[in-house]
Amino acid sequence: MGGEKVKKIAICPGSFDPITYGHLDIIQRGAKVFDEVYVGVLHNSAKKSLFTVEERVNLIEEATAHIPNVKVDSFQGLTVDYAKSKNACAMIRGLRAVTDFEYEMQITSMNRVLDEGIETFFIMTNNQYSFLSSSIVKEVAKYNGNISELVPEPVQKAIVRKMQG
């Protein structure tokens, strides 16, 4: 019994296509609670994404560079398997509204069946981001709307490049 403190590790999984200020709010707040937070970018080949997984990882790394206990990578497959691979005891999930809760409750219940040792922590998003989603950002950007209040500047520039490209 050396009295060594066990690191509290959490994952924050998602597609993050693109990462928004709402996502960053959840990640930053989770990083205050856990010793390490892995932002796991889900590779979902069934979903048509604006950015490649590698581009999303790079954008998130840039957006979270100021948070020393956040690491970013990608994964495929079950989220609980990814959590286990990182020795995580928890998953961090953001909630915007009641509709998010219903979906997240189903996912959490299934994850508990798969591994009851991994807890899910829900963080309510800051009210100023309660409307915000990656889909909304892409829709506004598609019509040349101002997204500067929705995503970090490097993400905004990357979106504009993609939309013009």
UniProtKB/TrEMBL annotation:
Domain Cytidyltransferase-like: 11-139
Catalysis: reaction(s): (R)-4'-phosphopantetheine + ATP + H(+) = 3'-dephospho-CoA + diphosphate
Keyword terms of this UniProt record: ATP-binding, Coenzyme A biosynthesis, Cytoplasm, Magnesium, Nucleotide-binding, Nucleotidyltransferase, Transferase
Primary site of residence: cytoplasm
GO cellular component, one term: cytoplasm
MF terms (GO), sorted A to Z: ATP binding; pantetheine-phosphate adenylyltransferase activity
Residues that hold ATP according to the record: S15, F16, H23, G94, L95, R96, E104, Y129, S130, F131, L132, S133, S134, S135
InterPro entries registered for this protein in UniProt: Cyt_trans-like, PPAT, Rossmann-like_a/b/a_fold
Entry's Gene Ontology BP terms: coenzyme A biosynthetic process
Enzyme class name: transferase
Keyword DNA-binding set for record: no
Pathway: Cofactor biosynthesis; coenzyme A biosynthesis; CoA from (R)-pantothenate: step 4/5
Enzyme Commission (EC) number: 2.7.7.3
Amino-acid positions noted as binding substrate in the UniProt annotation, renumbered to this chain: S15, K47, T79, R93
Pfam families given in the database record: CTP_transf_like (PF01467)
Subcellular location: Cytoplasm
Top-rank taxon: Bacteria
Site location (Transition state stabilizer): H23
Necessary cofactors: Mg(2+)
Keyword Cell membrane attached: no
Subunit note: Homohexamer.
Recorded family membership: Belongs to the bacterial CoaD family.
HAMAP family reported for this sequence: PPAT_bact (MF_00151)
General function of this protein: Reversibly transfers an adenylyl group from ATP to 4'-phosphopantetheine, yielding dephospho-CoA (dPCoA) and pyrophosphate.
Annotated protein name in UniProt: Phosphopantetheine adenylyltransferase
Species of the source: Pradoshia eiseniae
Underlying gene: coaD
